[in-house]
Structures are given as C-alpha cells and as structure tokens.
Design brief:
By secondary structure, chain A is of the alpha+beta class. Chain A is built from two helices and four strands. In chain A, strand 3 and strand 4 form a beta hairpin. Chain A starts with 5 loop residues before the first strand and ends with a strand.
Chain lengths: 93, 93
C-alpha cells in the first residue's frame, strides 16, 4: 500500500476526514485506507474509522487491523516527550 | 477472563489507571487485562496501555488485541447519539 492511501487526522472539520476516507474507497477505488493519528487526535481517528465504515461504507468496508505505538521527541525545552500513536487499517470486506 | 480484569478509563489522574493495570499483572497475577474507554477518553486508554506495557511492564506484557466499536444512546433531548469505544487487551508475552 502506498502512502497515498493514508489519512492523517488533525484539527480540521470532522467530515473532511470522513469524506477523504470514503473518496479513497469510492472514486479512487482503493482496497485499503490507513487512518493515522497521534496524541489527543487518537479518539478522533477512531470516530473517523467508525463513521466511515459503519455509516457511509456499511457492508463494503470494515476495520482490518489496529496498531498502537509510542513516539518520542524532544520538546522546546530539550525534554524527551512520549506521545501515543494509532494506525487503523480499513479494507474492503 | 472475568470483568475484574477490566479497567475503565475516565477523568481520574492518569497514573491511577497505569497503577491499576500494573497491579492486575503484578499483585493479582492476571494473565490479561482489558483497558476500555469511550469517546474522548479513547486517546487516554491508548496512553495507559502504552505506558503500562512499555515503561512499567516492558518485556513481560504486550498489546494482544485492539477492538473499536460504536455505541448509540439517547441524550437528554431524546436524540440518538453515537459514541466510539475502544477495548485494548494487554497480556503476558
């Protein structure tokens, strides 16, 4: 799968992301779409995956895999900060 | 697995939940612990699972399974509201 099929969840309007996922499956005919998020946007990524697969693509798309992980980075003060990540793979049934 | 091994994530201090998970594995000798959350607490559930398994129980406990789902309920105005849920199963390696 190429990175083109990945949707990164952030602070844009919720339906932008849902539409992005749905269009990957419909107009771009993707077999799989990855929904990724970090930190506080993880809850939103789950919402996007649930609404896309159950409300808009019900019967044709389902959750195939969910992975969680941690990333570490240095903040402005030079302190190491840990942040959780999620990656939800949606695919055709 | 009994419901005793389930930790529901809410608005209490973060380390309360991490301690809860760690104690299930250590003092209660559980084989599996379920971390559950709804809505905005989903991000926190992922944090609890990551910090418990990677910082406190590294090498002995790992993420075994992650399930997401939707629940519907009626709010005070009688409107049907959808909320996402997550269930993360941590288990001994």
């Amino acid at each position: 799968m190429t990175e083109d099929n990945t949707i990164f969840i952030g602070g844009k309007p919720f339906m932008n992301y849902v539409t992005g996922v749905v269009m990957q499956f419909t107009t771009k005919n993707a077999d799989e779409v990855n929904v990724k998020a970090r930190g506080k946007f993880i809850s939103r990524a789950v919402d996007v995956a649930e609404v896309s697969s159950k409300r808009f693509l019900d019967g044709t798309v389902e959750v195939k895999d969910i992975r969680i992980n941690s990333e570490e980075f240095e903040n402005k003060e030079g302190k190491t900060v840990r942040v959780s990540t999620i990656e939800i793979t949606l695919g055709r049934k």
